[in-house]
Specification:
Elements lengths: L2 H4 L16 H14 L5 H13 L1 H8 L2 H5 L30 H8 L3 H4 L12
Helix pairs in contact: 2-3, 2-4, 3-4
């Protein structure tokens, strides 16, 4: 692919931390989504139901749909998506959860180094 062809593709990374405040509502919604999925084979449906009952992260994974995040964005088409959900230890005061100045620049689109094509990892560190 030429540079002009590859520049059409953008990888959007989103990292969310969600607090489960009503486990039963989350589980019920995920079970309903599984029940309503007409394309899911019965054996997978049974396995999915068990997983959802045991783990809130599994329930959430059945409810989050990447297409819904970008489906209404004009001028783009979702080409590929993958996502996962896992339990997380969360401390809002921990350094890992704080935006540093570099990350804030990235979020604002004002980081001059990135504009020059500087490669960075998911944490904003130069590669």
């Amino acid at each position: 692919m030429s540079a002009s062809e590859t520049s059409r593709y953008v990888r959007l990374r989103v990292d969310l931390v969600l607090e489960v405040t009503e486990r039963d509502r989350l589980t019920d919604a995920a079970l309903q989504r599984i029940k309503d999925d007409e394309f899911m084979p019965e054996e997978e449906r049974a396995h999915a139901g068990t997983a959802v009952h045991e783990d809130e992260a599994e329930a959430l994974a059945y409810l989050v749909e990447p297409f819904q995040l970008v489906g209404e964005v004009p001028g783009v088409e979702l080409v590929q998506a993958s996502w996962s959900s896992e339990q997380a230890d969360y401390d809002p005061d921990a350094d890992a959860w704080q935006l540093d100045d570099e990350d804030e620049d990235d979020a604002d689109g004002e980081d001059e180094d990135d504009a020059d094509g500087d490669d960075r990892d998911a944490d904003g560190h130069r590669l």
